[in-house]
Amino acid sequence: MSKPTPPRPGQGALKTRLGEILRVDQAGELAAVHIYRGQAAVMRNAPGRERIADQLKEMEGHEQVHLSRFNDLLTERGVRPTLMSPVWRAAAFALGAGTALMGDKAAHACTEAVESVIEKHYAGQIAELKDRDPELAAELSQFRDDELAHRDLAVEEGAREAPGYPLLSAVIQAGCRAAIKISEKI
């Protein structure tokens, strides 16, 4: 019996990379939905916070559309979701609720921090995919535009006026970047 020939370097690399992209993006949208749910759970029960609760519900709706699309793409392309989904779901809800308990501006600072990381993340993927998978790149561009709108609204609503904004933003962004790296592989 002869030994099986090992795969050539790079063989299957594109499919593997596409799987990483779809897995991490689905995880990110799952987390975004749960961040907004956590924030809305606090805000809708706080007197005088109906306007922000409505904003959060609307942004959650945008993220749910993105999540549904990524769920479909995972199924269509035979990619498994990250094994970290249960952890990200709980952590995201806790992050959302925790920042909302700190006040409106902290909730907005959370949104700005998350969406700033995600915008850069999507921009890199769009550049990577524009020639290889232009349809997916176009979808990611639309999703990135939605994320930018959420970030801009958060800034308009006073995100940078949150208590401890520099530290809060830095910690949230570092957590997002770590979650991205973990979700691509696990």
Please sum up the structure shown:
With 186 residues, the protein is an all-alpha fold.
Q: Which helices and strands occur, and which strands form pairs?
A:
Layout: H1 13-43, H2 50-77, H3 85-101, H4 104-129, H5 134-156, H6 165-185
Oligomer kind: single chain
Q: Which segments are poorly predicted (pLDDT under 50) over 5 or more consecutive residues?
A: none
Separation of the first and last Cα atoms: 35 Å
How much of the polypeptide forms β-strand, as a percent range?
under 5%
The helix/strand class is: mainly alpha
Mean pLDDT: 89
Based on DSSP secondary structure assignment, what is the total number of beta strands? 0
Q: The biggest beta sheet, please?
A: none
SSE string:
HHHHHH
Number of helices: 6
Q: What share of the residues lie within helices?
A: over 70%
Shape: elongated
C-alpha-based Rg, rounded: 18 Å
Would you kindly provide a written description of the structure presented here, covering whatever features stand out?
This protein is mostly helical and 186 residues long. It is 78% helix and 0% strand. Helix 1 (13-43) runs antiparallel to helix 2. The mean pLDDT is 89.
List keywords for this structure.
186 residues, mainly alpha, 6 helices, 78% helix, elongated
